[in-house]
Design goal:
Strand content: 25-35%
Order of helices and strands: HEEEEEEEHHHHEEHHEE
CATH class of the largest domain: Alpha Beta
CATH superfamily of the largest domain: Band 7 domain
Length: 275
């Protein structure tokens, strides 16, 4: 029996030796070993991270890498309602960084998909909550309001990270939060564009009417001035018209102008040629 177990041990050792592989990390990573013994021994996460260089592992041990430099995560939002019930579209970004050497803790407590498991939904909910406190006009016209939103979101998530760490350590730091300017969704934008077009058409109509009204006022003033001039000069209407006609002829060089004086065929016709 002793010989049998000895043979098994030799066989396992032989398999382990021929099934080893070299695992390594670069300057932006650290690695975690997860031991999975076949028959005996204690398994689980090796709590010492591989932070540089490389190391051999046996075939029954898994090896995963974590990025230890800042990583940006982007969330896209459609139809987030602001406080005047306008649906808005926007994107928000959060940059997170693993505390150096803490990848085994993160893996043990929250798993490899820690962002999806722990951060994503809380981040999205927090963004929605803060966006919903502002109206559409503020969100689309005031860039400074986003500075306040970003600070508020970072503080809220920072407190959330602290709270969950009180139960299980969450070794992730918030580097920054950026919220892109929100805009009304496509259907609202179409309605806004239609409204703007109609408003512009109305403004154009009003402007044209103002120009026409001003033209009439100007012409009326000119007519009154002509009447006053004719009275002052003691001229008949016919004489005044002839005078204005001559002024027109003088103002048109190189023109061939036929001028009819009198309302009947008996009136005089002048053929005026300017050279």
């Amino acid at each position: 029996m002793k010989k049998f177990f000895t043979l098994i041990a030799i066989a396992i050792a032989s398999v382990s030796m021929v099934s080893c592989s070299l695992c390594g990390v670069d300057g932006t990573e650290e690695g975690v070993f997860i031991k999975k013994p076949l028959f005996f021994g204690k398994g689980g996460v090796e709590m010492q991270a591989l932070t540089d260089g490389s190391e051999w592992k046996v075939f029954s041990t898994d090896f995963v890498t974590y990025t230890n430099i800042p990583v940006k995560y982007t969330e896209v939002f459609d139809d987030v309602f602001c406080n005047d019930n306008t649906p808005m579209d926007l994107s928000a970004h959060i940059t997170l960084q693993l505390v150096k050497g803490k990848s085994p803790v993160l893996h043990t407590n929250y798993g490899f998909n820690w962002y999806d498991n722990v951060v994503k939904e809380t981040f999205r909910k927090t963004v929605r909550n803060f966006i919903s406190t502002y109206d559409m006009y503020t969100l689309t016209s005031d860039r400074e309001v986003y500075d306040a939103i970003e600070v508020d979101i970072a503080e809220k998530l920072g407190q959330y990270f602290t709270d969950i760490s009180s139960t299980k350590e969450f070794p992730i730091a918030i580097v920054n939060v950026v919220v892109d300017k929100a805009k009304p969704n496509n259907s609202v934008m179409e309605e806004l564009n239609k409204t703007a077009t109609m408003a512009q058409a109305k403004l154009t109509e009003i402007k044209q009417q103002e120009v026409e009204d001003q033209r009439k006022i100007t012409e009326h003033k000119r007519a009154l001035a002509d009447m006053e001039y004719r009275k002052t000069m003691n001229m008949t209407a016919s004489e005044y018209i002839q005078m204005r006609t001559l002024e027109v002829i003088e103002s048109k060089p190189n023109a061939n102008i036929d001028v009819l004086f009198g309302a009947t065929s008996a009136g005089s016709m002048w053929d005026v040629k300017k050279k």
